[in-house]
Design goal:
By secondary structure, the protein is of the alpha/beta class. It has helices spanning 2-16, 23-31, 36-45, 53-56, 73-78, 81-89, 135-139, 156-168, 193-202, 230-234, 238-241, 243-246, 251-275; strands at 68-71, 95-100, 146-150, 173-178, 209-212, 217-220. It has a six-stranded mixed sheet with strand order 1-2-4-3-5-6, sandwiched between helices. Helix 8 (156-168) links the parallel strand 3 (146-150) and strand 4. Helix 1 packs antiparallel against helix 2 (23-31) and helix 2 (23-31) packs antiparallel against helix 3 (36-45). The longest helix has 25 residues, at 251-275. The chain is elongated. It starts with a helix and ends with a helix. The mean pLDDT is 92.
Length: 276
């Protein structure tokens, strides 16, 4: 951001002091500095031999760049959450991708703030007893930030749209991607992860959506959600299916609460889509 602000100031100054053929290109860059196609055109057409030194030094910064920060649950939901919040609260053009495995995958699959009710993991041996943090709902408190949830196995085109929209948005953007993990214990192994991602969305466990700040429109991309498939999804992963054996007294109550929270979350996002 600092480099591009410097580039803006220098090209603005160069344009004011220029009467040569480059002037139109300086103006075009200033009007489209976040558009890669336009700025690449500018980069390729400036006559650098006639350009002042301050422009020649900025040659590599003329094509627009997309900046992404990529991390997992521990970064986004826990120890790095203050950093996420700091970016969302700013006007900086930074994109953030959260690989949401719903456990601390990097350190052995422990339960985290991203874990859902009833899920079994280290530090939640009898099933997690409290609610999952809804990072997307928190991010939506910043109306100038682009926010999306995606699942590759459920809707690849929706995922591509989200990445394109986030990159095009001139401001902070957050994409939360449902990410299968070996700690989930998917039936049949990770070879079935694509189908399992699709079931997570179809059952209502993980809604997918996009919020576009420029229009204020919230688009719920989860279609034909069937909560009758919710138990099928839970039993397709050992982190839920083993709960009956490990915690025979409370397993049903935990999984019922898990489903109820998912239904209420989906209703919230459904209302948000209808209201915008």
């Amino acid at each position: 951001e600092v480099a591009y602000e410097t580039a803006r100031q220098r090209l603005q100054k160069a344009m004011q002091n220029s009467s040569d053929e480059n002037k139109q290109w300086y103006q075009k860059w200033l009007d489209n500095m976040n558009d890669y196609q336009v700025t690449k055109e500018v980069h390729d057409n400036i006559n650098y031999e006639k350009a002042p030194t301050i422009v020649q030094e900025l040659k590599d910064f003329i094509p627009a760049r997309t900046v992404w920060a990529i991390g997992g649950d521990g970064w986004a939901y826990d120890i790095g959450f203050s950093g996420i919040d700091h970016v969302l609260a700013s006007s900086d053009n930074v994109n953030m991708l959260v690989l949401d495995t719903q456990v601390y995958s990097n350190t052995g699959g422990q339960s985290s703030k991203a874990s859902t009710l009833g899920s079994i993991a280290p530090f939640a041996g009898k099933g997690k007893g409290n609610y999952r943090k809804d990072l997307a709902r928190i991010a939506l408190c910043y109306p100038h930030a682009y926010v999306a949830q995606v699942s590759l196995g459920a809707d690849g085109m929706q995922l591509i749209k989200a990445f394109q929209e986030a990159a095009a948005h001139n401001g902070p953007a957050l994409i939360i991607a449902y990410s299968p993990c070996i700690a989930h214990g998917i039936a049949g192994g990770l070879g079935n992860s694509v189908e399992n991602q699709a079931l997570a969305v179809k059952s209502g466990y993980f809604p997918i959506f996009r919020y576009q700040p420029t229009t204020g429109k919230f688009i719920l991309d989860s279609k034909d959600v069937d909560f009758a498939k919710y138990e099928e999804f839970l039993h397709s992963q050992k982190r839920f299916s083993m709960l009956k054996t490990i915690n025979p007294e409370n397993w049903q109550a935990l999984l019922d609460a898990n489903k109820k929270q998912a239904e209420e979350t989906f209703q919230y996002y459904q209302k948000l889509a209808n209201d915008t």
